[in-house]
Amino acid sequence: MDGLVVAGVGVSFDGDPAVQDVTLELPAGQVLAVLGPSGCGKSTLLRVIAGLQVPDRGTVSFDGADVTGIPTHKRGFALMFQDGQLFAHLDVAANVAYPLRRKRVARAKIAPRVTELLNLVGLPGMEERGPASLSGGQQQRVALARALAAEPRLLLLDEPLSALDRALRDRLATDLREILVCTGTTALLVTHDHDEALTAADRIAVMRDGRIVQQGPAADVWQHPVDERAAQFLGFSTILDGSGADRLRPLLGAGAGRRIALRPGALRVDPRGELIGTVRSAATVADGIRLRCEVEAIGEVQAYAETGTTLAPGDRVQLRLVPAATAALPEGPAGR
Ligand SMILES: Nc1ncnc2c1ncn2[C@@H]1O[C@H](COP(=O)(O)OP(=O)(O)OP(=O)(O)O)[C@@H](O)[C@H]1O
């Protein structure tokens, strides 16, 4: 297969397994997000792929060739970290040009390429700025331009947006996706942020306790979390079974399953809504009014109303279920 194949990789530190039997596929030209909580082994896995960590077992291959024993600088991969790690003493142009100089690209070709890369990441005309004069988001854009400069066969991104605030992170995740797609870059991103993973990636692998518990196209993983813990990690806030799931199943149609996961926006106040709830609390948030509602046969759930709606504890409301914000969970015990 063209692209990255990780097969049976394991790494232990002093006998404690950090990565266990990880197998991953990333087809050329696609973006894979490895999504998992802090300490699950994401960075260790990324370091193995980069060649910075020797695995105890397993192999890393790229475009059909085993690269497990190849040193980092000979893999043709690029790395980008949470804090960009720009060279503070070099201006933006020199930072972006750094990999080109190392590759001994002809001097006359470097300046136009730097201009092109800065345009690509949305920083036209910033060549002479110093890293310290840039915002956190701008610094990450420069780091991305630098990582892309040498046209890596594979771009490895370790929590590239985690140091940024939420609004900026959302915008940059969208831009990152566009930039990776339009340059045809094969990229692997590790993150603990499900929104970032869904925005940026074609494929998602969910990692937990050193293992990949689920992987596939982003939409499949999103719609069919493998278990309850994966669902929670993917941003589903409520898991219903028993009478709660029975009440919702007719609203979801065939294939709804016996356990149903709801995202925070799955229930909306709507006069045509099929469910009746009693408001327990209401709080104004950025995108509307967030309610806790008691719904018969379901219990207390989160719901949203449009900004400007006046609601108080004790009010009766009709709630509409948004099927796209639900997922079917497999039956059986909660995830490990
Ligand atoms: N060089 C090391 N020596 C010893 N233990 C390590 C080393 N690197 C990582 N570990 C341990 O391996 C486990 C996985 O760490 P890793 O950094 O890969 O997780 P992570 O998912 O990337 O977490 P985070 O997002 O917090 O960085 C942790 O228990 C960590 O303490």
UniProtKB/TrEMBL annotation:
Domain of life where this protein originates: Bacteria
Entry keyword set: ATP-binding, Cell membrane, Ion transport, Iron, Iron transport, Membrane, Nucleotide-binding, Transport
Keyword presence, Membrane: yes
Entry's EC annotation: 7.6.2.9
CDD domains in the record: ABC_Carb_Solutes_like
InterPro entries noted in UniProt: AAA+_ATPase, ABC_SmlMolc_Importer, ABC_transporter-like_ATP-bd, ABC_transporter-like_CS, ABC_transpr_FbpC, P-loop_NTPase, Transp-assoc_OB_typ2
A GO term from the CC aspect: ATP-binding cassette (ABC) transporter complex
Start and end residues of each ABC transporter domain: 4-234
SMART domains membership: AAA
Any one GO MF annotation of this record: ABC-type quaternary ammonium compound transporting activity
Record Pfam families: ABC_tran (PF00005), TOBE_2 (PF08402)
PANTHER family per record: SPERMIDINE/PUTRESCINE IMPORT ATP-BINDING PROTEIN POTA, SPERMIDINE_PUTRESCINE IMPORT ATP-BINDING PROTEIN POTA
Protein name, per record: ABC-type quaternary amine transporter
